[in-house]
Design brief:
The structure holds two protein chains of two kinds. Chain A is mainly beta. Chain A is built from no helices and twelve strands. The chains are: A mainly beta, B mainly beta.
């Protein structure tokens, strides 16, 4: 079975600074990878996804992520954050053969300060 | 085009009562998925339904929990005789006929509190 580890539970960052959220996964077979964002008291919104092809994936709101197969990682980055990026971020993985079942990490809370 | 609609947004139940959570998928979506988010944890898959069929319920607790997606109307997640440990956010997602790794559209969730 696949699993996801988000290495940081809390990431405080100043406005306009860069941020990186780390995600590692384990799976013996090929997977799809996702990052979701959850704003307070809201549902999850898809930020970006990796299905195949280029390992650098660009998403909404200026976020991007890089798939590294050898390190089984899918880290999320943004070069300059805004106050509005304060939210919880979830990394998720699904098997290509069973793509409806997502396995989520425990989440990383990003707090952006002025 | 309305998104995935869940209601109620917040639900408070006393121990032993029943909780019914509703999910209306996006227009044109015939596949529904339920996930549970316990405090301080990520979402955990519960069940995958198509109209009138349960496709995969491997994440559902064996007792007290059931789900349905009738031909007409919303999908219902039903929890009988709730206990404090059922307190969580329950999210519903939907997808069109074939997911193809596109990821879900999630609703805003129902936050269940058992007192």
């Amino acid at each position: 079975a696949q699993s996801v580890t988000q290495l940081d539970s809390q990431v405080p960052v100043f406005e306009e600074a860069p941020v990186e959220l780390r995600c590692n996964y384990s799976s013996s077979v090929s997977v799809y990878l996702f990052w979701y964002v959850q704003y307070p008291n809201q549902g999850l919104q898809l930020l970006l996804k990796y299905l195949s092809g280029s390992t650098l994936v660009k998403g909404i709101n200026g976020f991007e992520a890089e798939f590294n197969k050898s390190q089984t990682s899918f880290h999320l980055r943004k070069p300059s954050v805004h106050i509005s990026d304060t939210a919880e971020y979830f990394c998720a993985v699904s098997l290509i053969s069973n793509d409806y079942k997502l396995s989520f990490g425990a989440g990383t809370t990003v707090t952006v300060r002025a | 085009n309305a998104g995935v609609m869940q209601n109620p947004r917040h639900l408070v139940r006393r121990r032993g009562q029943e909780a019914r959570l509703r999910c209306s998928p996006m227009k044109g979506h015939s596949h529904v998925y339920w996930y549970r988010q316990l405090p301080e944890e990520g979402l955990k898959f519960m069940v995958y339904l198509q109209k009138e069929n349960i496709i995969d319920e491997s994440g559902m607790p064996k007792e007290r929990f059931s789900a349905e997606f009738p031909k007409e109307g919303p999908s219902i997640l039903r929890i009988q005789q709730v206990v404090r440990g059922d307190s969580a956010a329950y999210f519903c997602a939907s997808s069109p006929e074939k997911l193809l790794g596109d990821g879900y559209t999630f609703g805003s969730g129902t936050r269940l509190t058992v007192v």
